[in-house]
Amino acid sequence: MFRPYVSGAAFGAALTAAAIYQPDVIVQQMSLRDWHMVTTFLTATGASTLLVTIFQRLGYLNLNPRNYSTLNIFGPLDGNIIGGLLLGTGLAVSGSCPGTVFAQIGAGVRSGFYTLGGAILGGVIWSGILRPALRSREKPTKGAADTETHRLTIDKVTGVNRTTALVAIETLFASIVAAIVYLASPKSDGLVGPVAGGFLISGAQLVSILTRRSLIGTSGSFEEVGDYFWWAIGRGVRPKSYNAIVLTAGMVAGALAVTLASPSTYTQAVPETTIEPIRAVVGGVFLALGSRIGGGCTSGHGISGISLFSVSSFVTVAAMFAGGMAVGVILG
Question: Would you call 151 exposed, middle or buried from its count of C-beta atoms within 10 A (0-12, 13-18, 19+)?
């Protein structure tokens, strides 16, 4: 259990140093008024993709791409699309995401506590009500044959080799980041700038790779808490894992450590957010349900899933930003 905690502490510290956890940063990104979040996110994802590819080729990692999240409503990726849209809505409403909420707790951001409460409520709803209902809709799969039918990675879908896909992804992300830096000049209120913050976050991914041979993901913690809730009241079996809970506890500690190490920076940088408690709670519910329906969040799909070239991760992240920006523009 020590290894997930260390990975989480590194991730929480990196999010805090990069100041990407701040509600204003997320809300202003979703309303297209500031490009700090996207700059940091794409830098972290591009660097993480390179790291994961290297360790996969060295044989240190042997991780499979993420499967499709299928609800059997309108296509094999419908869960990724619907979940991504809900997740993006949660970002715009709460000014948080399933990972940054734990950095907000460590940094003492008041709305983060309400958002976490909503996310826990969403985890309880998911584990005890929505997940069983969706499982009843599942169609039987054919194992390896089904996986082959749904090509899970970008290189398989496009027919190019993995190296070509890597170069294309890195070039795309680097070009977008360069364009944003040139045109918008995003700034950070943290210890480092948006681009350096992205590299710090990929450094946290490296810690996870070296210590756990696994990648970062946080939204599973809400499901684990939900599972423990239903077990505690006698309506479920005892959960087998609490790794995600331990990882997120480490994130709180890492964020707290960075905040205490530079109190003046974070006292000035974190204003009293205008996100009301009820808005934060509702946003938290959206975060939990969206990430569970979609099978991952901004870290699990975004930074980690894309690093594995997962088609489902690209689709979920695209839906997340589309949904979040649509809601963000409406909310203003």
Answer: middle
pLDDT of residue 268: 53
Report the C-alpha gap between 79 and 90 in whole angstroms. 16
For the whole model, what pTM was predicted?
Answer: 0.93
d(CA 81, CA 94): 20
C-alpha span between 54 and 117 (Å, rounded):
38
Band of residue 294 on the pLDDT scale cut at 50, 70, 90: very high
Tokens encoding 86: 């809900």
Q: Residue 136: is its pLDDT beyond 50?
A: yes
Distance (Å, whole) CA 90 – CA 16: 20
Q: How far is CA 278 from CA 108, 115, 143, in A?
A: 18, 9, 43
Q: What Å distances lie between residue 321 and 30, 289, 315, 331, CA to CA?
A: 7, 16, 10, 15
Residue 98 burial (CB count, 10 A): 32
List, as one string, the DSSP characters of 294-320: HT--IIIIIIIIGGGTBHHHHHHHHHH
Q: Report pLDDT digits (tens) over 8-55.
A: 999 999 999 999 999 999 999 999 999 999 999 999 999 999 999 999
Q: Under a CB-based contact definition with an 8 Å cutoff, are residues 299 and 99 in contact? A: yes
Please provide the DSSP assignment of 105-123 as one string.
HHHT-HHHHHHHHHHHHHH
Both structure tokens of 84 = 């991504």
Tell me, what DSSP letter sits at residue 140?
P
What would the two tokens of residue 251 be? 């994130």
Q: Indicate the DSSP class of residue 153.
A: B
Instruction: Please give the structure tokens belonging to residue 25.
Output: 């940063």
User: What letter does residue 68 receive in the DSSP assignment?
Assistant: P
C-beta separation of 81 from 319 below 8 A: yes
Non-local CB neighbours of 130 within 8 Å, separated by 6+ positions: 289, 292, 293
Count, residues in the chain: 332
